Amino acid sequence: MDTLPTTQLKTVTDAFDYKGFPAEKSKTGGWTSASMILGGEVMERLTTLGITVNLVTYLTGTMHLGNAASANIVTNFVGTSFMLCLFGGFLGDTYVGRYLNIAVFAAVQATGVALLTISTIIPSLTPPICTEHTHCVKANHKQLMVLFLALYVTALGTGGLKSSVPGFGSDQFDATDKEENKQMIKFLNWFYFFANIGSLMAVTVLVYIQDHQGRDWGYGICACAILIALVVFLCGTSKYRYKKPVGSPLTQIAVVFVAAWRKRNLQLPSDSAFLFNDDDVLHEPPKIKKQKLPHSMQFRFLDKAAIKDSENTVGIMKINKWYLSTLTDVEEVKLVLRMLPIWASTIVFWTVQVQMMTLSVSQATTMDRHIGKSFQIPAASMTCFLIGTILLTVPFYDRFISPVARRVLKNPQGLTPLQHTGVGLVLSILSMVAAALIEEKRIIFARSHGLANNPNAKIPLTVFWLVPQFFIVGAGEAFMYMGQLDFFLRECPDGMKTMSMGLFLSSRSLGFFFSSLLVSTVNKLTGPSNPWIANNLNQGRLYNYYWLLAMLSVINLFIYLACAKWYVYKDKKLAEEVILEE
């Protein structure tokens, strides 16, 4: 009898090892396992950003596509990668588990990057090199098909990885153990830091190799990096803690909507106490004990999912979950719906952010990138100022801004998640204002030196004029990331925590898709004779596009402020419910 409590203390109640036995704390999980996952995240970021950040110069310089078309290809590729996070998260949470998800999708990503590397090695898969005496030939249908196949296989692997890695890393710590819970929070902080270290390596070392040694070398290193990450990850198989798939919250959302629709003609009771809320009937054990949420009057049509009608018995209710939901399930879905306006109002921010990887890189290719007489900065490496700013902003906020905010706002956490996000949106406006002013200066400089008609000319204007827009967007991303991640982790219902990362990443995805739509629309409206985003930037009016983004960002900020004022934090609603009960 004495050994049972001791055994229980040494194991994690909701996790098991690779043999299927309860996971022992001394033999599984912890920082030993987490370090392998962190190392893999560095390699994954090195790979994905190593492809993405310099892709626009590959499309324009090697595949001979236009600036607008190249920018759209990059944004569609990245947007698809982030959108597939929802698919990867659903698959991992519902069917295969996070471990298998990571292993399979890492292999898929490695396959895509290998195809991309092969496409740069085989001469027939790229158009001939341009010379001063020959017309540049655009990539043909076959060459583009191979390129797109490689990119979207890579996107599929990236989506599956990004949705599962943070969650699997946090699984290595027992949230019910006070000490391990502190370590889990530390892991999440280190995760963001290491991810940006991988990004910084990609936009500096890897981009330099791509520009000076060739894309075959650069993409080959990417393929090797993700393979190394996969091998290291698999080596930790016996050390990891595993959790069974518990189902996707997307299923719960669908169940509530279907049940409400099927009973759309029924009359809602005047008192919510008559609605069904017996959690033990509908959820088969083992189940997560859900936190009871106060009944809200918003989205009342969903309450019909919890109506008990006389034609059903408890036994039938238990089986047919698509006809009856508990009031707690309904309130959780309402909570997610209330979060959606905040989520949607961040999409424009990511539309601004993507310009740093596309059009700002194109700007850099036209400017003087020399440091001294011999060393030339790769155009894509300008994004290191964005990533470096992120790495500096996070500790700067913790050491300086947060203490001041705690005193001034009398809030123990400093800025709230919504205030964090608001600061990020304001900075995105300032970044586009700076970008527009700098682009106007660049155009005037090009025309004053008679270089406007030469698309290959290098303007004698230092590329460091672009630093302010990278700097401001980087600071904005740091505030946006901290605010949105905290918002989704805090405000999502307890049973829907895994969906927070998918929602956060999907807003970035939609921002990238919106950028593609906006670029195409702007070029169509401004016409081929005088487009804002011309193949020769010196003849375009890119500054007008930046001014347009600044105006859209201002409109979006006002919408966000209205949504933030309307939103009530979950903790506040629960506190109000406690007061009412007392």
How would you describe what is shown here?
The chain has three domains: 12-247, Up-down Bundle (Growth Hormone, Chain: A), CATH 1.20.1250; 249-336, no CATH class; 345-582, MFS general substrate transporter like domains (Growth Hormone, Chain: A). It is 66% helix and 3% strand. It contains 20 helices and six strands. The chain has a two-stranded antiparallel ribbon with strand order 1-2. A two-stranded parallel sheet has the order 3-6. A two-stranded antiparallel ribbon has the order 4-5. Helix 5 (98-121) packs antiparallel against helix 6, helix 15 crosses helix 17 (467-491) and helix 16 (417-448) runs antiparallel to helix 17. The longest helix has 36 residues, at 178-213. Mean pLDDT is 83; it is low at 1-8, 312-318 and 578-582.
Order of the strands making up the biggest sheet: 1-2
Total E-strand runs = 6
Shape descriptor: globular
Mean pLDDT: 83
| Oligomeric state, counting identical vs distinct chains | single chain
Number of helices: 20
What gyration radius follows from the Cα positions, in whole Å? 26 Å
Tell me the number of structural domains.
3
Do you know the CATH architecture of the largest domain? Up-down Bundle
Characteristics:
mainly alpha; disordered N terminus; Growth Hormone, Chain: A; single chain; two-stranded parallel ribbon
